[in-house]
Amino acid sequence: MVCNMNCHLFSGRESRLDLRGLVCFYLGFLWLYADRRAMSIREEIRLCMSDATRTGDGCFRARFRFPADFTAFQGHFPGRPVLPGLCLIQAALVACESGRREKARLREIVSVKFFAPIAPETDVFLDGVESPLEQAECSVKATVRDGARKLLARLSLRVAFLA
């Protein structure tokens, strides 16, 4: 599987993935981890979430702690596990869904910037805000920080909500 993606992780430069690149990246991720567990990555990420809150003005916050045996750490990278960036995007979708009946579906990665790697057992706080767009879509902007409030990532996504 070959994908061309303009993605510079931890370089400080903004990274953009087009939909084709995202699909290729996501399929590669699923291929790597699909046979590891019957539970989906998204369900496993949901189990890592706690303290999810939502306010009436579209703001939300969630805490995540990914254990050392989290599926995505297997093979990424041996000897020094790092949370894949795609898991942070999925975590943002899971946090968006908290307190809602609809499922969040990623429509576009507008921008994503990773500042530091996330190791197992790190407390990760995701703060986000939703802004309505058209019909059942919204813009989601989120920051990801560790327990010491160090900025780990910044995400800007376009999300659709499906019943």
What is the element layout, followed by pairings?
Blueprint: H1 19-33, H2 41-47, E1 49-54, E2 59-65, H3 85-97, E3 103-114, E4 123-132, E5 137-146, E6 151-162
Antiparallel strand pairs: 1-2, 2-4, 3-6, 4-5, 5-6
Helix pairs in contact: 2-3
Strand arrangement across the biggest beta sheet: 1-2-4-5-6-3
Superfamily (CATH H level) name: Hotdog Thioesterase
* Percent in helix: 10-25%
Strand content: 25-35%
What CATH calls the topology is Thiol Ester Dehydrase, Chain A
Shape: globular
The major beta sheet can be summarized as:
6 strands, antiparallel
CATH architecture: Roll
Protein model, in words:
By secondary structure, the chain is α+β, with helices and mostly antiparallel strands. It has a single domain (19-162), classed as Hotdog Thioesterase (Thiol Ester Dehydrase, Chain A), CATH 3.10.129.10. 21% of the residues lie in helices and 35% in strands. The chain contains three helices and six strands; from the N terminus they run ααββαββββ. It has helices spanning 19-33, 41-47, 85-97, and strands spanning 49-54, 59-65, 103-114, 123-132, 137-146, 151-162. A six-stranded antiparallel beta sheet has the order 1-2-4-5-6-3. The longest helix is centred in the first third of the chain and has 15 residues, at 19-33. The protein is globular, with a radius of gyration of 15 Å.
